[in-house]
Predict the structure.
Amino acid sequence: MTQDGLDSGASPFPPGLRVSIRASSIEEMQAKAPFWRVHATQLEPGGYTGRIRSVHTASMQLALFVCSNSTKVEGFVPERTLVLALPVSVESSIQNRGRRLAENAIIAYDHTEGIEFSFKGSLKIITVAVSVGEIERRARNLWGEAFEDRTSVGVLYLPDASARMSVARKINAILFETMRDPFALVSPRGCRELESAVIDTLLSSVIDRSRPERTPIRQKIARKAEEYLRTCCRDPISLSDLCAAVGATRRTVHLGFVELYGVPPMHYLRAIRLGGAREDLINARGRDLRVSDVAKEWGFKHFGRFALAYRDFFGALPSADTGLRARGATPHQ
């Protein structure tokens, strides 16, 4: 077990701490689990091996627990913390508080609740323990509502089982990359980037099962957003700007756009801008013209990137559509 980092003060976890341990018994496994007050009971006969890998920031512990035998786990969540847990593989049957965990569900416990889950067979599970304040802040940013508004009987839901596996594997990859990088946790910025990558990956896929959105409403919002993009397409627009303009969450706008137009909203905006630039170039044939001015007019600040994006989108460089060597461009740009 190694630690690099500064004093954590009142933080729930010591920032910079990395843990990598192996255990040959269930007692050793629970004794070595840092910051967890849990009791584990082996449920079936046979040898037991376990492994824990974890990294810590001031607001988060990201961990992978691997257990070889059926086990029941009881205990408490660390103080001021909320825990999200999801299997990396599908070999295990998990009971969460006496109920079988759905294949598209994530376990969600806060610090006021006790841990109670069991599994049959071997288990490989990702856990993300996050300070309550941090998870609430990010939930409101992503969903536009409180974290508890989407929690149902200690679980969150993803669209389907494949979505849960995809999220688990992405977060598992983030953990392994962080374990290998000796500099990943040495700065506050690095820690914040890790927190953003993990928490946003988790929360961005969560659906609202308690208050499902009706498709017509979502598509109505998407049409309103599309009208806004067309009206303001020459201006600097971020996804946050768009959501604020139509009064909807990122998820609602994203799903509505994909359903109606087949692409996310910012891809749609890029298509509008490229199409508008091409139309201006074609209509300006024979006139003295700077291609770079057209690019700037349509919101592309970097001319080289505009030329590459134009070629990727239309299969030709912008100079080809002017019918002449436009000023601000070369035949080979």
Notes: The chain has three domains: 2-203, 215-262, 268-322.
